[in-house]
Amino acid sequence: MVYNQKFVAVVKVNGSILRENSGEVFIPFNSEYSIMLKNLNSVKAVAKIYVDGIDTLDNHEIIIPANSSVEIEGFSKNRKVTNKFKFIEKTQQIAAYRGNKIDDGLIRVSFKFEEVIPVSTW
Questions:
Q1: Which of 30, 40, 38, 34 is nearest to 18 (CA)?
Q2: pTM for the whole thing?
Q3: CB 34 within 8 A of CB 14
Q4: Residue 41 has what pLDDT?
C-alpha cells in the first residue's frame, strides 16, 4: 500500500491487499492481481498506471471521484480489459523473447487532483 497526498494505491491478490515491506510489495509468482486506487480527497483525481513501463490504460487516464475508489484488473484497449495482470517469473526464454527492461517488475501510478478554482463574489 502506498499513500501520498490523500491518494492510495494498493495491489490485491485474491481479493486481499498486499502490504508494503521496506518500500516493496512482493507478489507471488503466477498470481493474477489487481490495482486499487483510492481517492481520499474532496475533489476528483485522475491517474495513469504503468506496469513494466507499459501504459495499462491505452493512453487514457482513469477518473477517481472524490472519496471513492476504483479497481483495475488488467491492461485495457478501447476501455475494456484485454489482458489481466499476472506476475510471472522472468525466465531465460522470456528475457530472450522480450529483452530486459529497466522497468521490469515495477508498477508505477501517477496522479493529479482536480484544480479547485476559487469563486469570486462581488
A1: 34
A2: 0.86
A3: no
A4: 95
